[in-house]
Design a protein that fits this description.
The protein has 347 residues and is an alpha/beta fold. It is built from 14 helices and 13 strands. It has two domains: 233 residues, Type I PLP-dependent aspartate aminotransferase-like (Major domain) (Aspartate Aminotransferase, domain 2, 3-Layer(aba) Sandwich); 94 residues, Aspartate Aminotransferase, domain 1, CATH 3.90.1150. The chain is 42% helix and 16% strand. It binds ligand TLP.
Length: 347
């Protein structure tokens, strides 16, 4: 019996077309700039994001860390959302690798208001640490997969530019954000200095992320990637799957969003279950179990016993992520299991 894995979109397996492309990939030593498939992927990524250049790296975490270390100097500060992946899940790389002190700002959209951060951007740098970077995330994982609205990111970028501060977007799921907002990815990326995005989530590639920015920024990023041991050799083998991800898999994200909607609509009927509202729903459904009298890990355990695997952010917040390996039939089954479970717990 099939296990329906909705813990994350990272669990997706590469498609047949990706495996075929990997088999046939033309390769070379990428540290010598000689891998034609990596170059093709990087060019494609830069073009899709409307940036001058791109760098292929092993993971979203590495893309964020390379970005942080390229934009900042040791001893500076960076504005980071209180729920950001960079802050929560990257083993404190922001401070341990980049040597940067995060300034944590809490805003429900994941994107600060200018007046929340203007103080940090205007401080006297002879007496206070310099704030050289604003980190954003869209879609925002721990904020229920919500995208940052275009006018919000535009205004924070304008504000950052006026204060000579760079903006990095953790766009691990930027194509989900673009779909939800009804725009192209470059329309979001135009309001950033750099973007990291992942091929290995909803786009189903087995590995890999990209960092995009100006040619000068990417040249420096190559050096930092090498410092982190992230230089790769015949990486065309995996980049080939990334090209399939970027050319064939972007449009299908819409399906994941519809599937998440099916689950959210089912769960919305249960009053005791606190669904986190999404203005622009994407491929995540997040809810709080506190009024069901069960912890999120225990709820997940009970769902797993019925072949539906889901994850949780903390003791009371469940996360469900639709993905390429769960089709409509799987999703209908999962929705039914989750709704029945929650109903059986409400009193
Ligand atoms: N997120 C993973 C876990 O680490 C939580 C997931 O299952 O969602 N930025 C964002 C917004 C992410 O959600 C992730 C992965 C990353 C960066 C890191 O990507 P990888 O796993 O490739 O290092």
């Amino acid at each position: 019996m099939k296990i329906i894995d909705l813990r994350s979109d990272t669990v997706t397996k590469p498609t047949l077309e990706m495996r075929q492309a990997m088999l046939e990939a033309e390769v070379g030593d990428d540290c010598h700039g000689e891998d034609p498939t990596v170059k093709q992927l990087q060019n494609l990524a830069a073009e899709k994001m409307g940036k001058e250049a791109a760098l292929y790296v092993s993971s979203g975490t590495m893309a964020n860390n390379v970005a942080l270390m390229t934009h900042t100097q040791v001893g500076e500060t960076a504005i980071v959302d209180a729920e950001a992946h960079i802050y929560y899940y990257e083993s404190a790389a922001i401070s341990s690798l980049a040597g940067v002190m995060p300034i944590i700002v809490d805003h429900p959209t994941g994107c600060p208001d200018p007046d929340q951060i203007s103080y940090y951007l205007q401080r006297d740098p002879t007496r206070f640490p310099l704030t050289s970077l604003i980190c954003l995330e869209s879609t925002h994982n721990r904020r229920g997969g919500r995208p940052i609205a275009l006018d919000r990111i535009a205004s924070i970028y304008q504000f950052a530019q006026a204060h000579r501060t760079a903006v990095h977007l953790d766009g691990a799921r930027i194509f989900n954000a673009a779909h939800a907002l009804g725009v192209s990815a470059w329309e979001i990326a135009q309001y950033t200095d750099s973007v990291s995005f992942c091929l290995s989530k909803g786009l189903a590639a087995p590995v890999g992320s990209l960092l995009v920015g100006t040619t000068e920024f990417i040249q420096q990023a190559v050096r930092i990637r090498r410092r982190l041991g992230g230089g790769m050799r015949q990486a065309g083998v995996i980049a080939a799957a990334g090209i399939v991800a970027l050319t064939e898999m972007v449009n299908r994200l819409q399906e994941d969003h519809q599937h998440a909607q099916i689950i959210a609509e089912g769960l919305a009927e249960i009053e005791a279950l606190e669904l986190e509202p999404g203005d622009f729903p994407t491929n995540m459904v997040v809810f709080n179990t506190r009024n069901l009298g069960i912890s999120a890990p225990d709820f997940a355990k009970q769902a797993a016993a019925k072949r539906v695997r889901i994850s949780y952010f903390d003791p009371q917040r469940v996360r469900i992520v639709t993905n390429n390996d769960a089709d409509r039939e799987d999703v209908l089954y999962a929705a039914d299991v989750l709704v029945r479970l929650a109903k059986s717990m409400q009193n």
